[in-house]
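Hey, I was hoping to borrow your eyes for a little while. I've been staring at a protein lately and its backbone has me curious. You're getting the sequence in one-letter code plus the fold written as tokens. Would you mind checking whether the tokens look sensible for this chain? Here's the protein in full, and shout if anything looks odd to you:
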Amino acid sequence: MRIAFYGSSLLSSVWNGAATYYRGLIRALDARGHEVTFFEPRAFGRQERADIEPPEWCEVVVYEPDPQGLAQVAARAGEFDAVVKTSGVGVLDDALPDAVYAKARPGALRVFWDVDAPATLAEIEAAPDHHLRRWIGEVDFVLTYGGGPPVVRRYEALGARACVPVYNALDPQTHHPVQPDPRFSGDLVFLGNRLPDRERRADEFFFRAAELRPQDRFLLGGSGWEDKPMPSNIAALGHVSTRDHNALNATPRAALNVSRDSMAQNGHSPATRVFEAAGAGACLITDDWEGIDAFLKPGEEVLVARDGQDVAEALGALSPERAEAIGQAALRRVLAEHTYDRRALEVERLFEAARQSQEPA
């Protein structure tokens, strides 16, 4: 199939946590024989700070974020068998669905792919005139990168024909064990951009844990934390390129995952961080959310914390040997069950079944 993605960015992870999700899925779809083009706007300085060069496994088209630029890339939607608009492009989100779905050729699949479903749903449900309400019932699929049954029920209540979670996963070619890097020496690392619905939970799970463990070294990666007051045992790294994520995960004694508020409340929403850290063989400590046991086994493949006190206690009891054992167990699990190859096969089967159902008998 020829598949068009209209999304935030494939090339850059700057203010774009979905980048590695897109890369893993699209690389796996390409390996299965599908031809993918990714249309991304020139915005937020992303292309100037790209993590990767345009890859051989996907055509990338960068367009100007104005009506003329949108019209040019929307006109290409008619070339594809499936037209995907993702959530959170960041510019022209109101105009993109009307533009690209209208240009899709007859018989092509139209897909809304939500990479932040709990937050998107809260926004739609609070706004009777939200621009996506029209399209939810008209697209062939709403796909989400998490959310489980609660998200499916909410999208179905809004009229979705089919809502299917396609969870984050591991791309072993990108995220894998590496040798420790002295730049990232420490006891606990947290990587996440400073966002309003994440900061409160970061205050509890990361910053409080650092206060409770002044003898340990904490590493903070991500954009937006520059003016955040923090204990002296936290080293703020700023934006960390995806090319350094393996070393960032593999070097400290443990890595911390902190979900955004909406994802924690909804559950069933493992972040890309979970699989990337596990793929690097890191010992992962995650905040507690419903459904974690469907992906990793608490106590054996991941440590689960209810608050900052739990994080501090887990870190205090974590020997290097146990950290190594947990990280290796998580690595084995994600390689066996949670790779993007598996996710791409799920998407392929969905798309092929839908296309066959459209063919005349």
Observations:
- The chain has two domains: 2-169+340-358, 182-337.
